[in-house]
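Issue 218. Parser rejects a valid record. Input:
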Amino acid sequence: MKLAFDLVVIGLLASLVHAASLVCLPNQHVLAGKPEIGDQPAAKLPEGVRKALKKAEIIPTVIDDFVPTLDLKVKWSDGNIASLGNTLEPEDLEDTPSIRFKDLVAPTTCLLRSSTSLVIVITDPDAPSRDDPKWSEFCHWIAVGPLVMGECPTIDEQTGISGCCSSMSFGTLEDLVSYTPPAPPKKTGKHRYVILALAPVNGTSEKLHLSKPKERKRWGYDKEVNGKTHGVRDWAVENGLIPFAANFFYAQNKKQ
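Output the parser choked on:
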């Protein structure tokens, strides 16, 4: 029943996400158009993304089951990228990453919508360790901004199908919680760092008035109850947001 509800809600947002081709945050560049190392073959998407999230137990531990609609690409300045479960070194993740989206399915219609607010988050469900997640989840970043869309003709690079894309850029991007890089403690093994793109359920183009977590640990919520930790899922429900794209990577302290 929950999955069916999510599918219905995602369908309501189709006019937004299926029109997307590229998104670039302000003061960040759109990545090169050709496929990069870590790009997923079209045949594996979107089910491949969902399968990877389930295998890593991000679904259902961090977020409820959903159908990813855009490919969320995350890149740091030295070229490191998140690629659905690759391992990155914490010292290479000091700067705020750049973000872009790409359609999981080649666009076949031209759509134009007014600005819509989107939210980008990074969360660690393994704080301080996966075996002892008493601080789970740990909030690493919440950023929000209006999405301004326009039209441009294109041919999908992977499939060669002609369609229509929407060139999109954010207005003023605001950090609700500033980016803090991964810093897994010593001898705590690999941590999963989950990046989610969220959109308002009602599709509003008005400025979002989001609650700010009072602290990063457990996203400001009380201690776990009956073994249940707190994090982005609770916060998203509280603020009327649902996920439409996701990515993740692993990182660990060198001293194990």
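Fixed in the parser; the record now loads. The chain has five helices and ten strands.
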